[in-house]
Structure prediction request, 193 residues.
Amino acid sequence: MTLREQIQHVIDDEPVAVFIKGTPERPLCGNSMRALQALRNAGAPITAVDVLPDPQIRQELSALSDWPTIPQVFVKGELLGGADITEELFASGELGRKLDDALGPEREQVVKTVAVG
Amino acid sequence: MAIETIRELLAGAFPDGAVEVVDRTGGDDHFHVTVESSTFHGLSLVEQHRLVNRALSAPLADGTIHELRITTKGRP
Prediction:
């Protein structure tokens, strides 16, 4: 599988996929931290991919999402946005409603990290 | 100055818009841009931010912008 196909699989298969710099335990960028915090506060399950190990990951991701910056949050395969949008949607309550609609209100809040490449 | 370039690019892309650009760290590479424009009316947040990212694609691609925060506001 190519790198781009691996990235696409994570986006398609994971309920909430988030591409960040670092890991959920140790985010290495303020914006990645902001997105993770908003997702946690909204009770989202989180599948994180660290883009730092290989610059190709970020290139391929941005090519397929048409989104230039990190982090990038996907819910059920659809781009939710970056840190600003994730925070904004959490603050307005819309993030919680979106997650309820997409994943059901009684979702398990599992946090995991997967590697690509 | 990158901040001037960003202001000009956003003003060009959103001619009816109110554009505010803040240098968050004083280093001329971490910015918070706020754009209020009728262009955003009826668009999702992702679509609104895409328009801003597109207007700033050159400074985003060449590293002039190291970090970008975006706030968009629609106008009826």
